[in-house]
Structures are given as C-alpha cells and as structure tokens.
Write a structure and sequence with these properties.
5 helices, about 270 residues, alpha+beta, disordered C terminus, DUF317 domain-containing protein, DUF317_SPDY, three-stranded antiparallel β-sheet, disordered N terminus
Length: about 270
C-alpha cells in the first residue's frame, strides 16, 4: 500500500525562535550541536551524568571538554604531540556560539587540506578591517563587535586571540596556543566571519542593543530534521573515510608474459 505525506504530524505546534545577527553575539547555544556531531564522527563520549562534557578523538590524540559549572568555564580543546606537530590547546569562553566553536571542532574530524591555511582569508572575504598595531596584526568585523588578533610573544611564538563583545561588555574571548594547527584556526575564523545569522529559542537571546533579531516559527520536527541532517552528514563522512582505509587494493601477482611477445587469449 502506497503511503502519502501527511504533513508534520497531528497537532504539532510551531515554537517561536529568533534568527540572531551578528552570530558572534548570539550567546552559547545548544552544546549538542557539537557533541552529537563528534559522536557521529566516531568520537568517544566520556561525559558523566550531570557533569561537564568530555569527548576524545578516535585516535585518542585530541580531547574536548565543556564545563559551564566553574568560572570562567567554557571550552577547552587539547591536542597531544604527534609526529606532525607539538602539543597544543585552545580555550573558548562559555558564551562562544556553538556554531563558531564547531568551525574548530568539525575540522578535527576531517583530513587536513593540502592547501596552505590562511587565517585571514575568510575575514578579508567578508570585508573585515585589517591593521597593524605595533607587533600585533588585528582584523575587526565591519560592525566592530568581533575581532581576530595575531601577535608574537616574548619568545617569538605566535599567539592568536579572538572574541566578540557588545558596547555593554557582554560577549566572549578565545585564545589558541602557538602550536595550534593553522588549518584549525582558519576553520574557526571562517565561522567567526560567516555573515549568516544563527537561531536561538525564545528566552535564549542575549539582551544587547547591537544585535538584530527576526522572529520565526519552527516546528519541533523541523528542528529535529535539521539536526539529524548534520548528524547524518557526519556519519556518512566517517563511513567514507573508514571505507577508504580498509579498501586499499592488495598487491596481486602479475600474470606471466613470455619475453618477446604479448600473451594471446584462446
């Protein structure tokens, strides 16, 4: 028997949400945006019930935690030293929007691009203002609420400092250690500069005179479908990578060909 589409379900009520711009001032958001994607990408979840989020990469070289129960709290990403680079870490304030944090954490699940990373390229594409300030190089968003800064420490090490704040001082900051892989910092800057608004439920929109909001009605099944699409994409990418590793061709014996002539088929 052929089924017909019956809509979103009987009696489903739309809920009020808001699109928030700029995204840097949208507040932290739902941590599951990150954790569910990592879980679908094969990461281990070591979180304890009612405690901080704690996740570990499949190869056990990277750990991600989110702790909202301490001050200042927020995100910590720690990478172990390996044959390609030194130990590194990133610290992001608890009000860093999950969509921007995901720029970094999603990139941890993908192979590194062969192209040389350029942290400034995504910012310049969105018309951020760049300038030298002594030994610092800073990019600022067109509305002045967000920034990305590079400077060298006393020992010559490169430090990255970034964040977003409104005129009342509400916002967040983040920093990356000198040895943080540049392709991860670029992935973060791309989401920081992304001009698209992000969505927050009613009651979760920060009070700020420097954000714009648009009210939208969203059904729970729509939200679930959007979230599931992100998870499905993560699973598909993980499956493709694992399949590529396990399906490398085996070396097989070459057929014998007599010297001086080609084989003929009978």
């Amino acid at each position: 028997m052929k089924r017909t589409w019956q809509g979103w379900g009987p009696g489903e009520q739309a809920e009020q949400h808001y699109l928030v711009h700029p995204r840097g001032l949208a507040g932290g958001g739902d941590v599951r945006h990150i954790s569910e994607f990592l879980r679908a990408s094969g990461w281990r979840d070591h979180s304890k019930t009612g405690g901080p989020l704690a996740m570990e990469s499949p190869d056990r070289t990277v750990r991600i935690s989110y702790d909202p129960y301490v001050l200042p709290g927020g995100w910590t990403v720690h990478g172990a030293a390996n044959g390609h680079g030194d130990e590194w870490s990133a610290h992001l304030g608890r009000q860093t929007p999950v969509e921007i944090v995901a720029g970094l954490t999603d990139a941890l699940t993908r192979p590194c691009s062969a192209h040389a990373p350029n942290v400034w390229a995504p910012l310049q594409e969105q018309n951020w203002h760049t300038r030298f300030e002594g030994e610092h190089y800073t990019a600022t968003s067109p509305d002045g609420t967000a920034w990305m800064q590079y400077h060298q420490g006393p020992g010559g090490e490169a430090m990255w400092w970034t964040g977003a704040k409104d005129s009342q001082g509400n916002g967040w900051t983040a920093n990356f250690s000198p040895s943080t892989p540049m392709h991860l910092v670029q992935a973060f800057s791309a989401e920081l500069a992304n001009p698209d608004p992000v969505m927050r439920p009613r009651g979760r929109v920060p009070l700020s005179t420097q954000i714009r909001t648009w009210s939208v009605s969203v059904k729970p099944s729509q939200l679930s479908a959007w979230q599931q699409a992100r998870i499905t994409a993560a699973r598909a990418a993980t499956w493709a990578r694992n399949s590529a590793r396990t399906s490398r061709p085996r070396a097989t014996a070459r057929p014998y060909t007599p010297a001086g002539g080609a084989r003929t088929r009978r």
